[in-house]
Design goal:
This protein is mostly helical. The protein contains nine helices and two strands. The chain has two domains: 76 residues, no CATH class; 177 residues, no CATH class. The chain is 52% helix and 3% strand. The chain has a two-stranded antiparallel sheet. Strand 1 and strand 2 form a beta hairpin. Helix 5 packs parallel to helix 7 and helix 7 packs across helix 8. The chain is extended. The N terminus is likely disordered. It is found in: Nucleus.
């Protein structure tokens, strides 16, 4: 067998270059050290002039044109054989993307579709019945507030009127029985008093509008949006639906809004009173 190794006649020692020199070394424009260690570098043109590699649109064909001369050479370095051979799975995943199999989420048959619809209607009816019982209990508690503790002629606190006005101007001028009961229980006020307050303010706003626009017709219902939430119809102002969807205006959410605004107004009222008391004390100290 003819060896591909050759030694230099003018030198007694064998250099690494001469020991691993291949006959076809000068025919190849690159060496093992000039190739990148990354397997993906074969997919891009080399900066040292790999003019013999013809790039195509397919990365797999580029790999084939590069790997054939490397495997044919018996003197190729071991590091080149390890680093230049990419995994077939990686190249396939980069060249093409196979989406996952689509899956039907809906019912497959008419029986399943009818069963799902019936189950939805049953849940909806159960929720409506449960809410009706809850509203009935709230109204009973609101109507049972002792009239001796809160007579109908008693003036309401300032922050209470501000909360009611906020509900009237920004949420709805037509609260239902559940919301009126929640307001009455929260403020420990009579149910009929809260209900009459909204009715009187609707009439007051209508009178003011007719005084300012005598030729125009006052239509409060036209400015409201009718929604369905928890199985009952509500008429809300557009400002109430700017940041909250229709299904979010549940009884619990409405009560949270009332609690937050009542707390803010109560703290504001206390701070203003504290500032007034402090200013009065400072004035007394200055005059005294």
């Amino acid at each position: 067998m003819q060896s591909c190794f050759s030694t230099s006649a003018s030198s007694d020692t064998i250099t690494p270059y001469n020991e691993y020199h291949c006959p076809d070394y000068h025919e190849r424009p690159e060496s093992c050290s000039s190739r990148s260690s990354s397997p993906w570098s074969d997919m891009t043109p080399s900066a040292q002039g790999d003019d013999d590699v013809e790039m195509t649109d397919s990365p797999a064909s580029s790999y084939a044109s590069i790997e054939q001369p490397i495997r044919a050479s018996p003197c190729a370095c071991e590091s080149e054989d390890i680093t230049s051979e990419p995994s077939s799975g990686s190249s396939a995943s980069l060249s093409t993307y196979v989406p996952p199999a689509s899956r039907r989420l809906g019912p497959f048959s008419d029986e399943d579709r009818k069963a799902a619809k019936n189950a939805y209607l049953v849940r909806k009816e159960l929720a409506r019945v449960a809410r009706a019982a809850r509203v009935k209990e709230l109204k009973r508690k609101a109507l049972s507030i002792n009239t001796k503790d809160r007579p109908s002629k008693a003036p309401a606190p300032d922050h209470q009127r501000e909360v009611l006005r906020l509900v009237f101007d920004q949420i709805t001028p037509y609260p239902d029985e559940a919301w009126i009961s929640q307001l009455a229980l929260h403020f420990n006020c009579r149910y009929n008093k809260i209900k009459n307050w909204f009715s009187n303010n609707r009439q007051k706003d209508a009178s003011e509008y007719r005084a300012l626009h005598p030729r125009d017709k006052y239509d409060l219902a036209a400015t409201l949006r009718q929604i369905v939430c928890e199985g009952r119809e509500l008429r809300l102002r557009p400002s109430a639906l700017e940041h909250c969807d229709e299904e979010e205006w549940t009884d619990n959410f409405f009560y949270e809004v009332v609690l937050i605004n009542d707390f803010r107004l109560t703290v504001k009222e206390r701070n203003e009173k504290a500032h007034q008391d402090a200013a009065y004390v400072m004035l007394e100290m200055k005059n005294g």
